[in-house]
Amino acid sequence: MSLDRGQVWKQLGAPTDQLGSVNDPRTQEEFGAKWNEKWIYRGEDGQSVERIVLWNRYDLVGVFRLKPDGSAEAETLPGG
After folding, report:
1. Pairing with 74, which of 26, 31, 39, 49 sits 20 to 30 Å away (CA)?
2. What is the largest CA-CA distance in the chain?
3. Is residue 80, in this structure, part of any structural domain at all?
4. Does 20 reside within a domain?
5. Which residues are bridge partners to 39 per DSSP?
6. Could you list the residue range(s) of the whole structural domain that residue 61 is in?
7. 79 occurs within a structural domain
8. Counted domains in the chain
């Protein structure tokens, strides 16, 4: 069972930024995942990106922790 939007929001809090929307028909691909909405969580400095959450419509397609070197590591949230 995949986490829904409310469960992810409850675990991670509000994203700092958001690209796209649940109803945006345009999709993109990042880290091998096809998405139309991206939640961005920035670090304390307000600039660095620590984590992104990718959605395709209402389906969670990936949670990724970004490393300082720019690479990303897939992350599993509890209940996901």
Report:
1. 26
2. 34
3. no
4. yes
5. 18, 53
6. 5-74
7. no
8. 1
